[in-house]
Amino acid sequence: MDTVIETAVLSKAYGSVQALTGLNLKVPRHSIFGLLGPNGSGKSTAMKLLLGLVRPTSGWGRVFGLDIERDSVEVRRRVGYLAQEPRFYEHLTARETLRFVLRFFDHIAHSERERRVASALELVGLEAKADRPVRGFSGGERQRLGIAQASIHAPDLLILDEPAAALDPMGRRDVLDILRRLRERATVVYSTHILDDVQRVSDRVAILKAGRLVAQAPVAELLAGDAGAVYAMVLQGAPESLRDELACLPWVTAVTASRGADAESWVVTVSDADAAEEKLLRLVLREPGARVLEFRRSRAELEDVFLDLMRGGEHAERDDLVSG
Amino acid sequence: MRSETISSRAEARAAGSPWGASLRGFGNVFRKELSSWTGTRSRWVHPLVWLAVLIGPLLLPLYLMREVFAAQAAGVLAMGLEMFFTLAALAPAVGAVLLMQGSVITERQLGTAAWVLSKPVGRSAFLLAKLTANAAALLIAATLLPGAVAYGLLSLEHGAPLALDSFLRALALDAVNVLFYLTLTLALGALVNNRGVVLAVPLALLLGGDLVLSLAPGLASVTPWVLGRFAAVVAQGQALPSAWPVLASLGWCVVLLAAALWRFGREDL
To answer: From the CA of A286, how many Å to the nearest CA of chain B?
Structure first.
């Protein structure tokens, strides 16, 4: 795996408060990497450590093979960063802010700089407000400007702390589109609370809880989980004895039922998906009077996995997910 | 990954020594700091305020209350020189404290320091750019410009141009005094998180200097407290009474700056 970010037992304590403990992270090149976790789980601290904004208490980290402490300035040359609550100089306009940022990077001709500034403003839809001071910007506009300033120098890596926060649904959709487009030339690491967005655009995720990494894996692998496949059925006229019969099958691990107004929903968890797909529906239809209105393999949602991990569920102890 | 690592490290080496990396971004931050003087109303407000503060009182002995001052033994010119150079040491120093007291703390608290330092900017470059840009702007607006006007007015009073070298050396002594308080305030902003301390300590030193010197006169040679008085003496063509206060003040600037750079380099943003 071509790795852009690698950390080993990276830790940070603020006095007696342990913000991050033993983080082992590996982010592959050109991935969209979601960093998940509740407030205070260490996501922002991890990002700031990578940028050299805070100093690790122990452990080490490399970005593009460069040491995050010793080579911090060079790391930042290749990274675009959006803070959780982006702050800018209030008296500068959006255009001046982007010019200011661009001057920190390679020396480029004035005309090229202006072209890049205009292009960045267009990318985030701020052309109409380009020449207004930032002090008059709404939270969403600041967020858009934050994305523009993070990506204006075409960095190899973008680290975005809650890029969709403070945005309306349209803005959120735009940000996801931007992330997808940026992936073609960069690696994107971002944190968010919006799990639906993560499931939609991310390749891999890392989940933090109380400063510790509890899972790190490709999204598909995380969703597949280790509890086996789950099948959902909506039935009419199926007797309780059939449910008991299914529950006794060697490849069935659990059957749960819930009664609706005119039909019953069964959720069958199995250890052998092949056996289930070959036999489960046949077994049910063999029962006289049983009608199957719906039969599908149920896909786990990232939210389920996330909540399971936050409750300290079985995924939390899985070394294979943590090691990714 | 291996080739990527090697090429990246080579680039890092090419970027220069650790000291070179820590100064990266200086020019851009310097330009931005200077633009807060030249790109806003400050561009004309500051010169006008400093002319009013430093030249206004000089009009008393020269024109408005000439008879009162002419009756004194020292004469109008000597009193005008002493008045200007004493005030030119004190007032811009107060201005330096007021202007710089929020410079670092505000940026740390608002998060703009973290934003700028997420770019390829050395922490030393960030602090040094703030110091040099504000020092340059303040010394031009509050020392050089009023100094030039005062030189013209006092030369008119003298009936011939005053000795320029003496006048410039006196201005330089006032400038060292301003630089000390500017550095002290900036350094405190990097060393502590309490805005009250950043404001109170320099102002207490500035305003309480005479009182301390009356109790411990020996401190005169290791503090900037006599620089204003020395400036008035030098402006009248006399020799500098002692170089120690100048050397000590410049030495303090270096020590304070080194402490600020060391502390800010370890600050979690």
So the answer is: 57
